Amino acid sequence: MAELGNGKKQASPEEVHPRKAFGWAAKDKSGVLSPFAFSRRNTGADDVTIKILYCGICHSDLHTAKNEWSNAIYPMVPGHEIVGVVTEVGQNVQNFKVGEKVGVGCIVNSCLSCQNCNRDYENYCPRIILTYNSLDVDGTMTYGGYSNMVVVNQHFVIRFPENLPLDKGAPLLCAGITVYSPLKEHGLDVPGKHLGVVGLGGLGHVAVKFGKAFGMKVTVISTSLKKEKEAIERLGADAFLVSSNAEQMQAAMGTMDGIINTVSADHSIAPLAFLLKTHGKMIMVGAPEKPLQLPIFSLILGGKTLAGSCIGGIKATQEMIDFAAKNNITADIELIPISYLNEAMERLTKADVRYRFVIDIGNSLTEA
Ligand code: NAP
Ligand code: ZN
């Protein structure tokens, strides 16, 4: 028990729930992760307990662990691209069985009764509970997938089709849905339309794959010339622009129906808006630490729309996973042992990953 200032005692992360759990946590805003013992709740009537096998590393994990969004609560166990196998189900759970392969993304609870939840937008529920760094319904902290097991309400568990590889499929649970959902919502899933993908990282590279599966023409806009060959040859993009190359950017002006912007850091958005056709849309999903500048004429001229989007609802996530399985869409990953976690975070800061780190939890995480 930890002593609080007012003389009361608060249960430590290890004691707050009955089941022992372990993982890696960030302990302060350095973002450095290290082994961490904590606990998980027992399997409730509507719960699914999952042994975690793989977890993707999203740039949001890095932003949050380093408190770049000023909302960090430490110790924090990040990870919201979780896949694993069901080990126990509660008495009300009919749709999941012990031994099945499942996934969990960014959301582990919501009210399930507000206007947003009723329309399958749990991602916009005012009472959303995120997979980590959130207060759970019982007032305890949620801890994410850089850990050995998790207990999740059945509504938020995603079924993994047999043919979808668990390791390469894990990143779809955040990166995949974050690009799939707005492309669908904004009518950017139409064959023949021209999609720009800004930032070829975890989100960007799966956006290219979904765009191509929808039959679109896809152009990557990147800061890294060295990603050009593989963007075209391996990922299937039709064209590649280097954002610092004014000539290339000029030649592509007014050609795109829509842009999905996945950039994680400060950058100029006016030159990107000029790539859009009249009435084109740029959807912002990247979430840089500092506010971006918005030169308003880049939108006024051509009547363009700037939109934001946050992950996607649970129904859309299952639909995206099924679509990915059917169309052989998976992430290109670098599978790492958990001991490599801090180096991976360092490399992610520098956009030095092709294109998603996935932690091999099942084979490398051992008790602290
Ligand atoms: P990532 O793998 O690090 O990819 C981000 C890409 O942005 C990099 O690969 C790089 O691509 C580009 N980039 C980085 N620094 C840049 C700079 N200074 N100027 C221009 N481009 C730069 O990250 P991710 O996991 O895909 O996540 C991307 C962003 O989306 C993060 O901010 C993350 O928090 C956010 N996110 C949002 C949601 C949501 O629901 N809205 C969900 C998940 C993640 P190039 O090398 O090609 O330039
Ligand atoms: Zn994410």
From TrEMBL:
Family membership noted in the UniProt record: Belongs to the zinc-containing alcohol dehydrogenase family.
Organism superkingdom: Eukaryota
Protein name, per record: cinnamyl-alcohol dehydrogenase
SMART domains associated with the record: PKS_ER
Names of the cofactor(s): Zn(2+)
A molecular-function term among this protein's GO annotations: cinnamyl-alcohol dehydrogenase activity
Enzyme class: oxidoreductase
EC number: 1.1.1.195
Catalytic activity: (E)-coniferol + NADP(+) = (E)-coniferaldehyde + NADPH + H(+); (E)-cinnamyl alcohol + NADP(+) = (E)-cinnamaldehyde + NADPH + H(+); (E)-sinapyl alcohol + NADP(+) = (E)-sinapaldehyde + NADPH + H(+); (E)-4-coumaroyl alcohol + NADP(+) = (E)-4-coumaraldehyde + NADPH + H(+)
One of the protein's GO biological processes: lignin biosynthetic process
Keywords: Lignin biosynthesis, Metal-binding, Oxidoreductase, Zinc
Organism: Zingiber officinale
